[in-house]
């Protein structure tokens, strides 16, 4: 049976932790608009070609909100980050969404990131020193990949990093595909909501140098600011987005560079490649997670296929980033690739707000690791690396390293 006749289970499993599923290339070539079954059992349409994914993500007619009665459910236990009450509170489109992005985006400019670099580097140095002190082999994900972005986003939000294990659990429940029950998710989201409510109330009383204090200081909607609920939900969204994806990406990036040791050696020989190497790791990441779902409010045509109104599409940015028609030698990791118009951060009005932060963290981690641990290597064969399962973000369970 050909791919356009069958319904694939999605996410499509891959044989190896760092490799793409074999089906991606076939889908892009022969069936760029494919039928898939989601973890919930509902059906959706999968897009794998670069041009299609970019166009759908940038089209304001398609909504990220999956609350329409005929929208596909991602997970049988509730859709967490894709369809929670939280997702409905941040405006989805138009002038309201742009206004929200302008207010929050001031914290994520390249200028702000440049100012944060020294403190990020210091955190990275201390975390690496702690890992070395504990002795090899170490877990790079637990020792560095996870704590660094958490410390940074906690600082930006003015929340105590000591609560990071709770944030981690709450984030995971929001990103659930198949790991948690509905009761576990509901309880965690209620706790998270209570926590952030208390935190925002405390910031009203005693403002600090942080995003939430600044959003409160702007005033309410009548002053050009956000509602109390929008501020609270923005805090929750930034905490989830600000640590889970980058924490996983640090581990995957270092694993990709060490999987073929000549890549690591090339960076040691020429640290000026760090910036393009980070972009290439983002493009090359075959395990970035679920992708971005969109609900079509209007009938549309994609790659010659008419998609009726009410279709839920899943845009696989990771599959699109391997599209040979856009990237020469797309199946190869080229550390000097430039330009590199990958879609790891999405496209259009909803492209990732924190991409400057993620890029800065990834660059700083590489700079510090190359300087402090030039002999770094994987402590297990690359075939033994294991993927994180059951969540909407892709990652590795552990990244065992020696030096």
TrEMBL record:
Its cofactor is heme. InterPro entries: Cyt_P450, Cyt_P450_B, Cyt_P450_CS, Cyt_P450_sf. Keywords: Heme, Iron, Metal-binding, Monooxygenase, Oxidoreductase. The keyword Amino-acid biosynthesis does not apply. The keyword Cell membrane does not apply. GO terms for molecular function: heme binding; iron ion binding; monooxygenase activity; oxidoreductase activity, acting on paired donors, with incorporation or reduction of molecular oxygen. Signal peptide: none annotated. Pfam families: p450 (PF00067). SUPFAM superfamilies: Cytochrome P450 (SSF48264). Belongs to the cytochrome P450 family. This is Cytochrome P450.
């Amino acid at each position: 049976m050909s791919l356009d006749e069958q319904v694939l289970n999605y996410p499509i499993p891959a044989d190896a932790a760092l490799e793409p599923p074999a089906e991606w290339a076939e889908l892009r070539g022969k069936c760029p608009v494919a039928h898939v079954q989601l973890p919930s059992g509902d059906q959706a349409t999968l897009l794998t070609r670069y041009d299609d994914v970019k166009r759908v993500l940038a089209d304001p007619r398609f909504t990220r909100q999956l609350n329409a009665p005929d929208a596909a459910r991602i997970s049988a236990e509730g859709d967490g980050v894709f369809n929670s009450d939280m997702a409905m509170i941040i405006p989805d489109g138009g002038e309201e969404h742009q206004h929200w992005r302008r207010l929050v985006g001031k914290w994520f400019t390249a200028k702000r990131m440049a100012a944060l670099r020294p403190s990020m580097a210091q955190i990275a140095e201390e975390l690496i020193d702690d890992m070395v002190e504990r002795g090899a082999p170490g877990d790079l994900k637990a020792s560095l990949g996870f704590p660094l972005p958490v410390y940074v986003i906690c600082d930006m939000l003015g929340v105590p990093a000591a609560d990071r294990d709770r944030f981690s659990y709450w984030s995971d429940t929001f990103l659930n595909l198949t790991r948690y029950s509905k009761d576990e998710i509901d309880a965690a989201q209620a706790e998270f909501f209570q926590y952030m409510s208390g935190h925002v109330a405390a910031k009203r009383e005693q403002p600090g140098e942080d995003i939430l204090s600044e959003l409160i200081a702007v005033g309410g909607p009548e002053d050009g600011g956000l509602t109390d609920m929008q501020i609270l939900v923005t805090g929750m969204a930034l905490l989830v987005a600000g640590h889970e994806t980058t924490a996983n990406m640090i581990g995957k990036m270092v694993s990709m560079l060490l999987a073929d040791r000549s890549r690591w050696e090339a960076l040691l020989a020429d640290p000026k490649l760090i910036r393009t190497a980070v972009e290439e790791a983002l493009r090359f990441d075959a395990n970035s997670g679920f992708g971005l779902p969109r609900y079509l409010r209007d009938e549309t045509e994609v790659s010659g296929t008419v998609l009726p109104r009410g279709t839920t599409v899943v845009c696989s940015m990771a599959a699109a980033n391997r599209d040979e028609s856009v990237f020469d030698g797309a199946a190869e990791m080229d550390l000097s690739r430039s330009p590199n118009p990958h879609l790891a951060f999405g496209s259009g009005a909803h492209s990732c707000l924190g991409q400057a932060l993620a890029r800065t963290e990834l660059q700083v981690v590489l700079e510090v690791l190359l300087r402090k641990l030039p002999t770094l290597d994987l402590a297990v064969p690359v075939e033994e690396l294991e993927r994180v399962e059951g969540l909407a973000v892709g990652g590795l369970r552990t990244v065992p390293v020696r030096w």
